[in-house]
Amino acid sequence: MYGYDSTYLLVILGLVLGMLAQSGVKRAYETYSRVHTQAGIPASSMVQDLLRRNGNDRVTVQKIAGSLTDHYNPADETLSLSEGVYASDSVAAVAVAAHEAGHAMQKMDAYAPLTLRSISVPVVNFGSQAAMPIFFVGLIMSFRPLVYLGIGLFGLSVFFSLITLPVELDASHRALKMLEAGEYLNAEEMVGAKKVLCSAAMTYVASALASLLNLARLLMIAQRGNRNRER
Ligand SMILES: [Zn+2]
In this structure, are residues 210 and 14 in contact, taking their beta carbons and an 8 Å threshold? Predict the structure, then answer.
Protein backbone atom coordinates (compact mmCIF):
# COMPACT_ATOMS: atom_id res chain seq x y z
CA MET A 1 0.00 0.00 0.00
CA TYR A 2 1.48 3.36 -0.93
CA GLY A 3 2.15 6.01 1.63
CA TYR A 4 2.80 3.77 4.59
CA ASP A 5 6.52 4.62 4.74
CA SER A 6 8.04 7.96 5.72
CA THR A 7 4.82 9.55 6.97
CA TYR A 8 4.86 6.94 9.70
CA LEU A 9 7.60 9.03 11.34
CA LEU A 10 4.92 11.58 12.25
CA VAL A 11 3.00 8.90 14.14
CA ILE A 12 6.17 7.83 15.94
CA LEU A 13 6.97 11.45 16.82
CA GLY A 14 3.49 11.76 18.32
CA LEU A 15 4.00 8.57 20.33
CA VAL A 16 7.37 9.77 21.65
CA LEU A 17 5.90 13.12 22.72
CA GLY A 18 3.13 11.26 24.52
CA MET A 19 5.58 8.96 26.28
CA LEU A 20 7.77 11.86 27.41
CA ALA A 21 4.75 13.70 28.81
CA GLN A 22 3.51 10.54 30.54
CA SER A 23 6.85 9.89 32.20
CA GLY A 24 6.96 13.54 33.32
CA VAL A 25 3.59 13.35 35.03
CA LYS A 26 4.45 10.00 36.58
CA ARG A 27 7.66 11.43 38.03
CA ALA A 28 5.95 14.55 39.43
CA TYR A 29 3.10 12.49 40.84
CA GLU A 30 5.43 9.99 42.52
CA THR A 31 7.57 12.75 44.02
CA TYR A 32 4.71 14.77 45.45
CA SER A 33 2.61 11.82 46.57
CA ARG A 34 5.36 11.27 49.15
CA VAL A 35 5.16 14.87 50.42
CA HIS A 36 2.51 15.24 53.13
CA THR A 37 0.80 18.59 53.47
CA GLN A 38 1.22 20.59 56.65
CA ALA A 39 -2.58 20.80 57.06
CA GLY A 40 -2.82 17.00 56.89
CA ILE A 41 -6.39 16.98 55.53
CA PRO A 42 -7.27 13.97 53.30
CA ALA A 43 -7.92 14.96 49.67
CA SER A 44 -11.55 13.78 49.85
CA SER A 45 -12.38 16.02 52.83
CA MET A 46 -10.37 18.90 51.40
CA VAL A 47 -12.22 18.77 48.07
CA GLN A 48 -15.64 18.65 49.76
CA ASP A 49 -14.74 21.68 51.84
CA LEU A 50 -13.27 23.47 48.81
CA LEU A 51 -16.42 22.91 46.74
CA ARG A 52 -18.70 24.03 49.55
CA ARG A 53 -16.66 27.19 50.07
CA ASN A 54 -16.97 27.94 46.37
CA GLY A 55 -20.75 27.61 46.51
CA ASN A 56 -20.94 24.19 44.85
CA ASP A 57 -22.89 21.68 46.95
CA ARG A 58 -24.20 19.56 44.07
CA VAL A 59 -21.19 17.29 43.75
CA THR A 60 -20.96 13.74 45.15
CA VAL A 61 -17.39 12.79 46.05
CA GLN A 62 -16.68 9.06 45.86
CA LYS A 63 -13.78 6.61 45.92
CA ILE A 64 -12.95 4.68 42.75
CA ALA A 65 -10.67 1.67 42.16
CA GLY A 66 -7.39 1.95 40.31
CA SER A 67 -4.49 4.36 40.12
CA LEU A 68 -4.78 7.78 38.44
CA THR A 69 -8.40 7.01 37.56
CA ASP A 70 -9.54 10.29 39.12
CA HIS A 71 -12.20 12.08 37.11
CA TYR A 72 -15.27 14.26 37.25
CA ASN A 73 -18.45 13.20 35.47
CA PRO A 74 -20.50 16.26 34.44
CA ALA A 75 -23.53 14.09 33.57
CA ASP A 76 -24.26 13.02 37.16
CA GLU A 77 -21.95 15.50 38.91
CA THR A 78 -19.83 12.88 40.65
CA LEU A 79 -16.22 13.49 41.49
CA SER A 80 -14.32 10.20 41.67
CA LEU A 81 -11.00 10.01 43.46
CA SER A 82 -8.70 7.00 43.07
CA GLU A 83 -7.70 4.85 46.04
CA GLY A 84 -4.27 6.50 46.26
CA VAL A 85 -5.76 9.99 46.29
CA TYR A 86 -9.00 9.71 48.29
CA ALA A 87 -7.59 9.31 51.80
CA SER A 88 -4.17 10.81 51.11
CA ASP A 89 -3.03 14.18 52.46
CA SER A 90 -0.12 14.42 50.00
CA VAL A 91 0.53 17.48 47.84
CA ALA A 92 -0.12 15.36 44.71
CA ALA A 93 -3.44 14.01 46.02
CA VAL A 94 -4.65 17.48 46.99
CA ALA A 95 -3.61 18.88 43.58
CA VAL A 96 -5.39 16.08 41.67
CA ALA A 97 -8.56 16.41 43.77
CA ALA A 98 -8.57 20.20 43.34
CA HIS A 99 -8.18 19.76 39.56
CA GLU A 100 -11.31 17.58 39.47
CA ALA A 101 -13.08 20.21 41.58
CA GLY A 102 -12.02 22.67 38.87
CA HIS A 103 -14.06 20.62 36.39
CA ALA A 104 -17.02 20.63 38.80
CA MET A 105 -16.81 24.44 38.95
CA GLN A 106 -16.74 24.54 35.12
CA LYS A 107 -19.99 22.59 35.09
CA MET A 108 -21.57 24.94 37.64
CA ASP A 109 -20.48 27.97 35.59
CA ALA A 110 -21.64 26.30 32.33
CA TYR A 111 -18.11 26.80 30.97
CA ALA A 112 -18.61 26.60 27.18
CA PRO A 113 -15.64 24.37 26.19
CA LEU A 114 -16.71 21.75 28.77
CA THR A 115 -20.29 21.76 27.44
CA LEU A 116 -18.99 21.51 23.87
CA ARG A 117 -16.69 18.64 24.77
CA SER A 118 -19.48 16.74 26.55
CA ILE A 119 -21.93 17.00 23.65
CA SER A 120 -19.31 16.07 21.06
CA VAL A 121 -18.32 12.77 22.74
CA PRO A 122 -20.73 10.40 20.86
CA VAL A 123 -19.98 11.97 17.47
CA VAL A 124 -16.25 11.89 18.12
CA ASN A 125 -16.39 8.24 19.24
CA PHE A 126 -18.12 7.24 16.03
CA GLY A 127 -15.78 9.38 13.91
CA SER A 128 -12.57 8.09 15.43
CA GLN A 129 -13.62 4.46 14.94
CA ALA A 130 -14.79 4.88 11.36
CA ALA A 131 -12.09 7.31 10.15
CA MET A 132 -9.16 4.98 9.41
CA PRO A 133 -11.10 2.11 7.78
CA ILE A 134 -12.95 4.56 5.52
CA PHE A 135 -9.72 6.39 4.69
CA PHE A 136 -7.82 3.24 3.69
CA VAL A 137 -10.72 1.69 1.80
CA GLY A 138 -10.89 4.99 -0.13
CA LEU A 139 -7.14 4.78 -0.86
CA ILE A 140 -7.30 1.16 -2.03
CA MET A 141 -10.28 1.89 -4.26
CA SER A 142 -8.68 5.19 -5.39
CA PHE A 143 -12.00 6.82 -4.55
CA ARG A 144 -11.21 10.37 -3.42
CA PRO A 145 -14.53 11.23 -1.70
CA LEU A 146 -14.06 8.29 0.65
CA VAL A 147 -10.46 9.35 1.40
CA TYR A 148 -11.61 12.85 2.33
CA LEU A 149 -14.55 11.52 4.33
CA GLY A 150 -12.03 9.49 6.35
CA ILE A 151 -9.90 12.61 6.90
CA GLY A 152 -12.98 14.58 7.89
CA LEU A 153 -13.99 11.96 10.45
CA PHE A 154 -10.45 11.88 11.80
CA GLY A 155 -10.71 15.67 12.08
CA LEU A 156 -13.44 15.13 14.70
CA SER A 157 -10.99 13.45 17.05
CA VAL A 158 -8.46 16.22 16.37
CA PHE A 159 -11.16 18.71 17.29
CA PHE A 160 -11.82 16.75 20.49
CA SER A 161 -8.18 16.76 21.57
CA LEU A 162 -7.97 20.50 20.86
CA ILE A 163 -11.16 21.34 22.79
CA THR A 164 -9.79 19.23 25.67
CA LEU A 165 -6.87 21.66 26.06
CA PRO A 166 -8.79 24.73 27.34
CA VAL A 167 -10.98 22.43 29.51
CA GLU A 168 -7.96 20.85 31.22
CA LEU A 169 -5.83 23.99 31.50
CA ASP A 170 -8.75 25.96 32.92
CA ALA A 171 -9.54 23.21 35.46
CA SER A 172 -5.95 23.35 36.74
CA HIS A 173 -5.99 27.14 36.76
CA ARG A 174 -9.19 27.10 38.83
CA ALA A 175 -7.71 24.42 41.11
CA LEU A 176 -4.63 26.47 41.94
CA LYS A 177 -6.70 29.60 42.56
CA MET A 178 -9.09 27.74 44.88
CA LEU A 179 -6.24 26.05 46.73
CA GLU A 180 -4.55 29.40 47.25
CA ALA A 181 -7.74 31.17 48.36
CA GLY A 182 -8.66 28.33 50.75
CA GLU A 183 -5.12 28.23 52.19
CA TYR A 184 -5.10 24.43 52.00
CA LEU A 185 -1.42 24.48 51.04
CA ASN A 186 1.53 26.57 52.18
CA ALA A 187 3.73 28.42 49.68
CA GLU A 188 6.16 25.54 49.23
CA GLU A 189 3.33 23.02 48.79
CA MET A 190 1.71 25.31 46.20
CA VAL A 191 4.89 25.03 44.10
CA GLY A 192 4.60 21.24 44.23
CA ALA A 193 0.90 21.32 43.29
CA LYS A 194 1.76 23.57 40.32
CA LYS A 195 4.41 21.09 39.15
CA VAL A 196 1.98 18.16 39.35
CA LEU A 197 -0.76 20.02 37.45
CA CYS A 198 1.60 21.50 34.84
CA SER A 199 3.08 18.09 34.06
CA ALA A 200 -0.45 16.68 33.77
CA ALA A 201 -1.34 19.52 31.37
CA MET A 202 1.64 18.57 29.20
CA THR A 203 0.07 15.16 28.52
CA TYR A 204 -2.95 16.91 26.98
CA VAL A 205 -0.68 19.20 24.94
CA ALA A 206 1.24 16.14 23.74
CA SER A 207 -1.90 14.26 22.70
CA ALA A 208 -3.25 17.34 20.87
CA LEU A 209 0.08 17.58 19.00
CA ALA A 210 0.01 13.86 18.26
CA SER A 211 -3.47 14.05 16.78
CA LEU A 212 -2.43 17.05 14.62
CA LEU A 213 0.63 15.06 13.42
CA ASN A 214 -1.64 12.13 12.56
CA LEU A 215 -3.93 14.44 10.63
CA ALA A 216 -0.92 15.87 8.75
CA ARG A 217 0.11 12.31 7.91
CA LEU A 218 -3.29 11.43 6.45
CA LEU A 219 -3.24 14.62 4.36
CA MET A 220 0.26 13.76 3.07
CA ILE A 221 -0.83 10.24 2.13
CA ALA A 222 -3.90 11.62 0.36
CA GLN A 223 -1.72 14.13 -1.54
CA ARG A 224 0.62 11.37 -2.63
CA GLY A 225 -2.39 9.38 -3.83
CA ASN A 226 -3.38 12.39 -5.96
CA ARG A 227 0.10 12.63 -7.49
CA ASN A 228 0.20 8.90 -8.23
CA ARG A 229 -3.08 9.22 -10.06
CA GLU A 230 -1.91 12.16 -12.14
CA ARG A 231 1.08 10.24 -13.41
ZN1 LIG B 1 -9.07 17.16 33.98
Answer: yes
For the stretch 9-43, pLDDT in tens is 999 999 999 999 999 999 999 999 999 999 999 99
133 Cα–ligand 1 center, Å = 30
pLDDT of residue 171: 98
The domain ranges of the chain are 8-230
Residue 4 in this model has a pLDDT that exceeds 60: no
For the purposes of burial, counting CB atoms within 10 Å of the CB of 128, is it exposed (0-12), middle (13-18) or buried (19 or more)? middle
Task: Give the distance (Å) from ligand 1 centre to CA of residue 169.
Answer: 8
Catalytic residue IDs? 100
Give 80's strand partners. 62, 71
Tell how far the Cα of 72 is from the centroid of ligand 1, in angstroms: 8
pLDDT computed for residue 230 by the predictor: 59
Rounded distance from Cα 170 to ligand 1 centre (Å): 9
pLDDT digits (tens, 9 = 90+) for 159-185: 999 999 999 999 999 999 999 999 999
Residue 3 has pLDDT above 50, yes or no: no
Please tell me the distance between residue 71's alpha carbon and the centre of ligand 1 in angstroms: 7
